[in-house]
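Hi support team,

I'm filing this because I wasn't sure whether my run with magnesium ion finished correctly. The job status page said complete, but I'd like someone to confirm that the output block is well-formed before I use it downstream. Pasting the exact inputs I used:
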Amino acid sequence: MDLKGCIFDLDGVIVDTAKYHFLAWQRLAEEMGFAFTEDHNEALKGVSRMASLEILLRVGGVVKDDEEKIELATRKNNWYVEYISRMTPDEILPGSIDLLNRLRSEGILTAIGSASRNAGTILDRIGLRTMFDVIVDGNKIHSAKPDPEVFLKGAEELGLAPENCVVFEDAQAGIEAALAGGMKCIGVGSPLNLGKANLVVPDLKNITLNQIKNL
Ligand code: BG6
Ligand code: MG
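And here is everything the job wrote out:
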């Protein structure tokens, strides 16, 4: 392919924030009187905040009205923001900075395509904001992954056609979003969950530019 841009999901690809989401959702579940496990948490990866709350409530068999749901999601987010506001650059996942540097030195544009409304805070805490030409986060989109909106907007803001972009994703919903947007997709994690991706790598450590270009 004619590779001109790479669009990265943030949570689970550049940083492991799933553990902070988990701690905050678990605390909320505990307050409501039920257990929420790491296994349950798997289903929340890549899923928007309100959709995550719906899954959590289903796990607990709890019914809430819309106003209560907003209050619960806000309470969870306040705890989550407390955790991420203490993040440091040490939490950048191995291989990320090196890959971003290699792409940028070849003139390949870079973007963030994240469902999170907290992406900006995280990028500031880990000091990576300037490594991305474009940042599209949950504040800029209307439809959550697997809808391709976040990645299509990323490509558009980079000034590129989708077929010239590759997406890096750790969640099934994100891979579906990338493919639905007409982009190639590299799954970061286990082939067991990410089988639909054009290529699956365990992390960003050993990936070569040729591998990306030859998808
Ligand atoms: C995604 C995470 O990146 O962002 C999900 O994988 C999270 O777990 C979603 O629910 C929304 O994040 P936030 O920070 O806006 O609540
Ligand atoms: Mg993710």
